[in-house]
Amino acid sequence: MRRTLVLLTAGLLAASLAVPAAVMAAPGHTVLVPGPTGGDDAANIQAALNSCVAHGPNCTVQLQAGTYLTSQLVTYNLRGTFKGAGEHQTTIEALPNLLVNRPDPGIVGGCLPNLTDCRWPNFIMFVDGNIEVSDLAIDFPYTNGQETTPYDFHSTQVGQVYNGTQVSQVYNGLDFLGDRSMSASVDRVSVTGLEDNSATNLGCGFNVMQGIVFDGWLPISPWNQTYATLSGSFAVRNSSVKTSCEGIVVTGQVKSSQVTIGGSPWAGNRVDDIGFAGIDMTGANSVFDISYNHVFVDNVGPASDKHRGMFVEPSNSAGLSSNLSKFSIHDNNIVVRDACGCPMQGIMLWDASFGLPYWFTATIMHNTISLSTPANKPSKWAEGMDVNNTKGTVISGNTIAGTSPGTGDAIYLWGGNPTWLPATGNVISGNNVSGLIPDPSFGLAQIVLDPYTTKNLVVCLRRTDTVLDQGTNNTVIGCHQ
């Protein structure tokens, strides 16, 4: 009897796998995707995702080992898991010339992403839902205008085509976006692009703009040049992004969210060979834990410009910039390398600029930042931390080093100009800045407070640490001024 059951089960399994474009719904709400075909696997993967959406919560789409070739995937309201056989066993590889036919938002209005008349230049898109993506790799092997079909890009929504030409570039590799509450997590996933200095990309020197993204930029219909707002949770753990303009990004109108990038010594991420920003975060009324990550913004190709290990910036959305967020940035290892004398920062905080109200507080502790600039191309904007217009931020116990000469300062606290809010109520204490010696031709110190800073506290680790205090009512203790 047992032999009969085994043979029957094996026969049913073989029959199910023999159907060319089918997916198999197994007990426990698991949908098994057929193995890679060597051709376009998009239909098989999309069918599995659609089947899981129909199943409802706690459904798993299970990919097999091998390399799946596919065009874009778009899934709405998945409440389950999209899973490979392992980060080094299952690969999803983008096909060349991905069709992009999204209408130009500056001319005819926006549209919600789909696979018919509104294909975005984003590769794998999950819209709304409760999603975990795990145990797979996502690769982009094409460059020189072969990434996508040409499309218009309007960064300012005024009808201007970027650089006078259309773009052929994957914008987001793995994209979670929506206009409601959404939970998304990424575990043991790698996203890898290639260098691309052709005129068809957005100028950052890569075939992929952003690797892993939690994104609130979903158009409201009818289009009125405003966007929906995404809230919920987002976590990236034990994952990597390599060779792209930006690595891990929270962008657009994101509010009321819990964001964890790393989060523990055994869950940190690696962001490597990045051109602009390794980790780029924004959000209103949200809590961020960015910790135990290894960030290497070290691509020094022809498009080198404005290298930033981490970039924390305000939302430009009406009504969001005044909602306080809290950032905890700790125990990260950040390396920023430059060969062009361009601006570079290990961590850049950009708060309350242009007169907007303060919108976040931050605690930045126990990070290691290394800046590398060539001696023949020094830059006074090569800084360990560039801290703009913050209020109530604590910077303590960090180690900042840089080549000498060639760097500006270890920590630069500034308010900008009289029309902006001043940098006030911040604490800079116990940071090891002895490994960074500013270029004397710039006249800067290791720690600098500009004229629009007030009522801040600086406590040096060593009496030889240099401080240039140009503000008012700041307190400087144990430093060489």
Write the layout of secondary structure elements.
Layout: H1 2-18, E1 24-26, E2 30-32, H2 42-55, E3 59-62, E4 66-70, E5 73-76, E6 79-83, E7 90-94, E8 124-127, E9 130-139, E10 170-177, E11 181-192, E12 208-215, E13 230-237, E14 240-251, E15 254-262, E16 270-281, E17 287-291, E18 294-297, E19 307-312, E20 325-330, E21 333-337, E22 344-350, E23 360-365, E24 368-372, E25 382-388, E26 394-396, E27 399-402, E28 409-414, E29 423-424, E30 427-429, E31 432-435, E32 447-449, E33 453-454, E34 457-459, E35 467-469, E36 475-477
Task: Give a short account of the largest sheet.
Answer: 34 strands, mixed
Q: Which quaternary structure do these chains form?
A: single chain
Strand content: 35-45%
If helices are DSSP runs of H or I spanning 4 or more residues, what is the number of helices? 2
Percent of residues in helical segments?
Answer: under 10%
What separation lies between the terminal Cα atoms?
A: 88 Å
| Average predicted confidence as pLDDT | 85
Count of strand segments: 36
Unreliable residue stretches: 1-27, 155-160, 221-225
Helix/sheet category = mainly beta
What shape does the CA trace take? elongated
Alpha carbon gyration radius? 24 Å
